[in-house]
Every structure is written in C-alpha cells, then in structure tokens.
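Chapter summary example.
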Amino acid sequence: MHEILLLSNPKSGAGSMNMIMILLMFAVMYFFMILPQMKKGKAQKKFWSELKKGDNIITSGGIHGKITEMKDSAVVIETEGGGKLKIEKSAISLELTQAAFKAAA
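The structure predicted for these 105 residues follows.
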C-alpha cells in the first residue's frame, strides 16, 4: 500500500557543528601539512641561492661533488674521480648535504 516517509528537520545546532568540524579539519591540515611544506620550500630556495663556488654538495641522486662553476639555473661540479658534471641547482639536496657535512664535522 502507501508508505509515508517522515522527514524531520535537523536540529539547528547540528549544521553549525558540522561546519565547525570541517573548518577545524582544514585548519589542522594547514598547520600540520601545508605550512611545514612551505617552510621547507623556502629553506630549499634560500639554500640554492646561497650556493657558491667551492661548496661541497650532494645531489638528490646521491652524487657527491664540489662546485667549480655557477650558472643561472645550473652548476658544474667536480666529482672525486676528477670528472665534471653539469647539474641543475634543483637537483642539489639540502637535507642530504646538511646531514653529510654535519656528520663529518
């Protein structure tokens, strides 16, 4: 026969509570995920801009070398065997370089 569906109005506070929870979730994501990534990116860019001839570096691929030439977006490094490689500055890893030379010091 006929079924009647009764729809009840949600409580007035439930909608605002859901909105607060969503905003809180976005705030947590911002402070724990987005903000640290932005800080890390700024530190990496600062590191690349401060590179100079004679610095020892490690690339993200694990190649160790000493900077012998600087260009706009690339550097020429000399490896242990005396070979020279031209690499992009973006391939130089801040974390690997700092970790290797802090351990050596």
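To summarize the output: Residues 12-49 form the longest helix (38 residues).
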